[in-house]
Write a structure and sequence with these properties.
43% helix, three-stranded mixed β-sheet, 109 residues
Length: 109
């Protein structure tokens, strides 16, 4: 199988930017306690943070230890964060798929 990784990254970032522009203010996602993102690599995670203007210190990382585990990164990362979350924390789960789709779900902890 061959994949245009640069094209997917660029298309995904464009899609993420469009969704964020349409939804972040409406749903007040601009100051979450954690952003649990679908993690592919350092480059992907950094570009997501930059494109959406997310504080990188609120994006817990699992890919350095587990590598690219695809969409499973979201529940795995959330599970690793459970002990550090407090009642009332706001957590945004974010996934960007290779089929160029994006979804977000907020959890009020």
């Amino acid at each position: 199988m061959r994949t245009d990784t640069t094209g997917l990254l660029n298309g995904g970032m464009e899609l993420a930017g469009d969704l964020w522009k349409d939804a972040a203010d409406e749903f007040d996602w601009t100051d979450m306690d954690r952003y649990i993102v679908h993690q592919v690599s350092q480059v992907h995670t950094q570009k997501t943070a930059e494109k959406l203007e997310l504080p990188i210190d609120r994006i817990p990382l699992t890919f350095p230890l587990l590598g690219n585990v695809g969409p499973a990164a979201v529940p795995i990362t959330l599970a690793k964060e459970v002990d550090s979350l407090n009642s009332g924390d706001r957590v945004l789960l974010m996934g960007i798929g290779s089929g160029l789709n994006m979804t977000c779900m907020e959890i009020d902890w």
